[in-house]
Amino acid sequence: MLVYDHGSRWENKIALTFDDGPNPFFTVKTLDLLDEYSVKASFFVLGQNAEKFPDIVKEIYKRGHLIGNHSYSHAKEGAFDFGKAEDVIFGIIGKHTGFARAPYLDVNRGADYYMVGGNDAVKFINADVFPHIHLRKAEISNFVFKNSQNGSIILLHDGSRKEEEQRTRPAEMFAALP
């Protein structure tokens, strides 16, 4: 099993990643902003949200961003349901993701699905810069700038596993993104 906490420290590059989408209120706006700056990102989608908003998953893919598996339901306990999410994502874009991010960055709970299924080539992508989801715009920006270095993988949220948070939770991240 391959796990990446960061990329090459020798290259002047970082990776922007987004978790818990797709989100009907923020994901397309985030895509538009990334297009404005000619930036590609990775979107680790939840299967339950992908099922609800397949057109947004197609849009992420169509615009050339990487789509990763973030489990189906973002369960707090037990094994993560990567298999169910992978089936949903495959049904939408017609290809397997090859990348996964375990909820809570808990790779140990996520590895079983891939190892048992014989697909140990899946890359687990963690992060080394992850501002708390309840920070304000300026705090997010300051945290990212202060803690990023060459090869950093920045974990942001364009969605939520809780439907009632879809309108509010990503707002500060989106405001900080430019």
Describe the structure.
This protein is 36% helix and 15% strand. With 178 residues, the protein is an alpha/beta fold. A four-stranded parallel sheet has the order 4-3-2-7. It has a three-stranded parallel sheet with strand order 1-6-5, with no helix packed on it. α1 links the parallel β2 (15-19) and β3 (42-45). The longest helix is centred in the middle third of the chain and has 12 residues, at 82-93. It is globular and about 35 Å long. 41% of the residues are buried.
List keywords for this structure.
three-stranded parallel beta sheet, single chain, alpha/beta, four-stranded parallel beta sheet, 178 residues, globular, 36% helix
Q: Which overall shape is indicated by the principal axes computed on the Cα atoms?
A: globular
N- to C-terminal distance: 34 Å
Number of strands: 7
Helix percentage range: 25-40%
Largest sheet geometry: 4 strands, parallel
Number of helices: 7
Overall residue-averaged pLDDT value: 90
Radius of gyration: 15 Å
Compact overview of the structure:
Helix content is 36%, strand content 15%.
Topology of helices and strands:
Elements: E1 2-4, E2 15-19, H1 27-36, E3 42-45, H2 47-52, H3 54-62, E4 66-69, H4 82-93, E5 99-100, H5 107-116, E6 123-125, H6 137-147, E7 153-157, H7 171-176
Parallel strand pairs: 1-6, 2-3, 2-7, 3-4, 5-6
